[in-house]
Specification:
With 126 residues, the chain is an alpha+beta fold. Helices cover 10% and strands 17% of the residues. The protein has a domain at 1-14 and 26-64. The protein is built from 2 helices and 5 strands. It has a 5-stranded antiparallel β-sheet with strand order 1-5-4-3-2, with no helix packed on it.
Length: 126
């Protein structure tokens, strides 16, 4: 289920105890008869996996994901066959695609910044 909900190879989640939202609240989608998933109603970012126990929060949704590394792999039977080989693939060196790098440098993100702000969305951003 996480592959479809996150649109990726997996959903990296960490357990949150006493979770408190600092701005607004997620919208929800019942992805099965037992699970609901929270997401940002503005941009669609996946936020939570909720199954009746502690809330699982998407690692990538944190301002600093480095402080909440996953500590356990679950559902290994659902792992895509090519996943274990990803780290051995060649990488694209910096400067190899100048047009692509120029394009990326011109992007102005409309997603929430990696820090809290006094208001959201920021004025002039939408």
């Amino acid at each position: 289920m996480c592959q479809k909900a996150f649109g990726g190879f997996f959903g990296a989640l960490v357990t949150a105890h006493d979770l408190e939202w600092t701005r607004g609240a997620p919208r929800y989608f019942s992805s099965s008869n037992k699970v609901r998933r929270g997401f940002c109603g503005t941009c669609g970012t996946p936020l939570t996996y909720e199954h009746g126990g502690p809330v699982e929060v998407a690692v990538g949704a944190f301002d600093n994901p480095e402080i909440v590394p996953p500590t356990l792999q679950v559902n290994p039977a659902d792992k895509l066959a090519f996943f274990d080989g990803l780290c051995s693939l060649p990488t694209r060196p910096a400067g190899a695609e100048p047009d692509g790098e120029k394009f990326k440098a011109s992007i102005v993100s409309h997603q929430h910044p990696d820090h809290d702000t006094a208001e959201w969305p920021l004025r002039g951003e939408r």
